[in-house]
């Protein structure tokens, strides 16, 4: 796999080729990754897999017209042909009044901090096999587990580089290590499956495999013998594993392109109070060993720490060059870049800050409610804010977690959910978008 310096050299070369063929401006983004994983099932080796990929994408501008193209052919003739085709395509494209490169004064130009995104260790297949076995063994040892879908251990390395014709040229690399297990509990017609996993930049930061395996086993066992729940409005408590998705809907709704297209329920409502005034949602792109840490975005714009929600109010939209131009706003450092195509929007290490109550205190006064551990379906409309998802989890009776429930639908609107949201104090930074357990009163719950 190419290193960040080699990737950056290719990006510079491709930008120069595009300029020599008539492009007024251009940028090139290169990505490379390699990974190795070992999977076991029922104590036996099942699969050893290694994969590598490399690609580079070129975006060119001819006046106000642009085109994007990507390739994994790095031969000199291949890159030359790529640049030639991109310029030809741009000349035929419609004019875009909003596209372009980020201005120089917005580009990251400082000395980068060491974000410690890779421990540079490379576990052997034997090491990965041992970790996968230990994870699965712990899951299978949980009383009530009857079968296994397997355990796995993996590591990966990645490289990203970006060069623009107005002077930006940076590259960086990172890595990650992952442990996971998935097991089955129950017998006959009442079999339930669940999983647990953890990913960290450094192998030493991973929990003990036994902890991950035990979590997978306990999650599966507690789902056995599900009942239903009466259909009515009630308090719903979200496990952090699914709660992060609710926060994800907010992030999608404040993305500049969604606002520019008027495809967000928040259009025209940016000054309203959307959460309780105690709620703060923050982003830290410079967190050491963070899963989404970065100094600059997919257009080279410097990233900054910021509050996305402060005192319960949204602080602004997340922009890239095109959406900022369309909305008449500044750049926020949220552009994302794949191998080709126009930049999108991505966040870096977002956290809903913890509340003051324990989970036990959060549910203590709930006479009858639902603790959601799994969500299904795609019933979220970011244009209207309507929310309806299939769910399963545990019933809450008299302030305690009771038996499992399944085949449930929960519904509300995202604005109503945000206003009613109350977080617990159990925040863990494990996913890149993290929330504590939180409670939302007044959701419509429909059982069988």
UniProtKB/TrEMBL annotation:
Source taxon at top rank: Bacteria
Domain Metalloprotease TldD/E N-terminal: 26-90
Any one GO BP annotation for this protein: proteolysis
Residue ranges constituting the Metalloprotease TldD/E central domain according to the UniProt record: 121-223
Pfam families documented for this protein: PmbA_TldD_1st, PmbA_TldD_2nd, PmbA_TldD_3rd
GO MF terms held by the record: metallopeptidase activity
Residue ranges of every copy of the Metalloprotease TldD/E C-terminal domain listed in the record: 231-447
SUPFAM superfamilies: Putative modulator of DNA gyrase, PmbA/TldD (SSF111283)
Annotated GO CC locations: cytosol
Family as reported in the entry's similarity comment: Belongs to the peptidase U62 family.
Name of the protein: TldD/PmbA family protein
Species, as recorded: Erythrobacter aureus
Organism taxonomic ancestry: Bacteria, Pseudomonadati, Pseudomonadota, Alphaproteobacteria, Sphingomonadales
């Amino acid at each position: 796999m190419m290193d960040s310096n080699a990737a950056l050299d290719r990006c510079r070369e491709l930008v120069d080729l595009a300029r020599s063929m008539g492009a007024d401006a251009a940028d090139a983004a290169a990505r490379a990754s390699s990974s190795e994983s070992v999977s076991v099932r029922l104590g036996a080796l099942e699969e050893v897999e290694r994969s590598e990929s490399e690609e580079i994408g070129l975006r060119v501008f001819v006046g106000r017209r642009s085109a994007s193209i990507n390739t994994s052919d790095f031969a000199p003739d291949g890159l030359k042909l790529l640049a030639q085709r991109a310029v030809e395509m741009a000349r035929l494209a419609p004019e875009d009044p909003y596209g372009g490169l980020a201005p120089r004064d917005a580009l990251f130009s400082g000395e980068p901090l060491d974000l410690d995104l890779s421990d540079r260790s490379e576990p052997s297949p034997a090491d990965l096999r041992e970790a996968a076995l230990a994870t699965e063994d712990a899951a299978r040892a949980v009383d009530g587990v009857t079968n296994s879908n397997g355990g796995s251990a993996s590591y990966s390395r990645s490289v990203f580089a970006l060069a623009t014709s107005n002077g930006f040229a940076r590259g960086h690399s990172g890595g990650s290590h992952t442990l996971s297990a998935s097991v089955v509990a129950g017998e006959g017609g009442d079999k339930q499956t669940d999983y647990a996993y953890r990913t960290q930049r450094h192998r030493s930061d991973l929990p003990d495999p036994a902890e991950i395996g035990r979590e997978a086993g306990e999650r599966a066992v507690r789902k056995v013998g599900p009942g239903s729940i009466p259909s009515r409005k009630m308090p719903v408590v979200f496990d952090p594993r699914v709660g992060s998705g609710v926060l994800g809907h907010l992030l999608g709704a404040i993305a500049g392109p969604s606002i520019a297209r008027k495809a967000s329920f928040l259009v025209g409502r940016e000054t309203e109070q959307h959460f309780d005034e105690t709620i703060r949602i923050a982003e830290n792109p410079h967190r050491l060993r963070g899963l989404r840490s970065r100094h600059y975005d997919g257009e080279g714009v410097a990233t900054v720490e910021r509050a996305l929600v402060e005192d319960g109010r949204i602080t602004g939209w997340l922009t890239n060059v095109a959406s900022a131009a369309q909305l008449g706003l500044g750049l926020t450092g949220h552009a994302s870049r794949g191998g080709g195509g126009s930049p999108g929007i991505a966040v870096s290490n977002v956290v809903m800050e913890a509340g003051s109550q324990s989970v036990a205190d959060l549910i203590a006064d709930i006479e009858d409610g639902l603790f959601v551990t799994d969500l299904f379906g795609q019933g979220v409309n970011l244009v209207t804010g309507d929310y309806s998802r299939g769910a399963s989890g545990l019933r809450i009776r008299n302030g305690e977690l009771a038996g499992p429930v399944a085949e449930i639908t929960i519904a509300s609107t995202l604005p109503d959910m945000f206003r009613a949201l109350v977080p617990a104090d159990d925040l863990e930074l494990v996913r890149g978008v993290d929330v504590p357990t939180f409670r939302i009163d007044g959701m419509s719950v429909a059982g069988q």
